[in-house]
Amino acid sequence: MDARLIGTFRQFQRVVTSEVGALQDDFLGRGRPYGASRVLWEMGDGPVEVADLRERLGLDAGYASRLLSVLEGEGLVSIDPSPDDARAKVVSRTEAGRDEAATLDRLSDGAAVDLLAHLSEAELVELDRATRVVTRALARRHLTIEIVDPDSRDARWCVGEFFAEIDALFDTGYDPSKAVAVGAADLTPPHGAFLVAYLHGQPVGCGGVKLPEGEPAFLKRMWVAPSARGLGVAGLMLDRLEALAAEVGATAVTLDTNSKLTAAGRLYGTRGYVEVPDFNGEPHADRWYRKELSAASAR
What we know:
By secondary structure, the protein is of the alpha+beta class. The chain folds into 2 domains: about 5-120, Arc Repressor Mutant, subunit A (Orthogonal Bundle), CATH 1.10.10; about 145-299, 3-Layer(aba) Sandwich (Aminopeptidase). About 45% of the residues lie in helices and about 20% in strands. The chain has 9 helices and 10 strands. Strand 2 and strand 3 form a beta hairpin. Helix 2 (about 35-40) crosses helix 4 (about 60-75). It is globular and about 60 Å long. This is DNA-binding MarR family transcriptional regulator. Keywords: Acyltransferase, DNA-binding, Transferase. Pfam families: Acetyltransf_1, MarR_2. InterPro entries: Acyl_CoA_acyltransferase (IPR016181), Bact_Acetyltransf (IPR050832), GNAT_dom (IPR000182), HTH_MarR-typ (IPR000835), WH-like_DNA-bd_sf (IPR036388), WH_DNA-bd_sf (IPR036390). GO terms for molecular function: acyltransferase activity, transferring groups other than amino-acyl groups; DNA binding; DNA-binding transcription factor activity.
C-alpha cells in the first residue's frame, strides 16, 4: 500500500483522537475516560449480554470488565446473570445511567458544534461528505448480511422495530392485520428469503423477497436501524435481494412503499426503479415500483 496513504490516515487518527478528547481521563468533564462513557452509550437501555457488547466494540474481556466496573461503581449500570444462559452476564443502565447517557449525548453534540464552528460553509460540506465516506468504508468490514428464518429472534426484532417506526410515521398509522399478507412461508426458500444485516454481530436491518414462480419478485420489509443509517446497508441489502431474485430466473422486481419513507424513495430512484400503477392494493402504500433485472444482477 502507498506509504503516503498510510501516513495520511495515521495523521487523521491522531488528529481525531486528540480533538474529540479520547486521550483524556476526564472525557467531557464527566470524571471518567472516553472508553467507559462509550460503553455506557453503546449498550442502549439494555439489557445486553456483556459478550455481545464486547464484540460490538472490539474489546478484550479484561478491558471490558474494568470499564464496566467503573460504571458499576458510579451506580450507572447493573450487571446480572443472563436469564437465558447461567454462564453469561447481562448489563443494563440504571435510572442514573440513563440520565448520564442523555447528558453525554447533549455534551457530545455541544462539543461537535464547538469543533465545527470555525469551519466555512464549503469546509462543512466537504467534511460531511468525507466523514460519510470514511464511516461507510471502515464500518463495512464489520457488516454481514445473512439469510435467516423469518421467525428467528433477530428477524422478529427487526420487523417489530420496522412496524413500530412506520406506525409512528404514517399519517394513519400501520396495522399489520390490514396489510397485504406476506407470511413466513412466503419468505422461506424456495418461495422466498428473509435477510438480516448484522453490524458487529448485532442485527441492524432486514429485507425480504417473495419469489413466486413465473412472476416478478416482490420485495418487502426493507428496514435499517437508525444507528446504522448512512453506512450503505440499504443499498447492500437491495443488491442481495435483487441477486436472489435473478438467481431463480425472475426478470423483474416489484415493491410498494409510502411517500413518508423519503430515504427509501430516493434509494429506489437511484437504483433503476420506476414508478408504476398500484398492483396489489396495499392500503398503507401510496407508491409502487418496478425494476427490470438483467443477467448481471445474478452475479
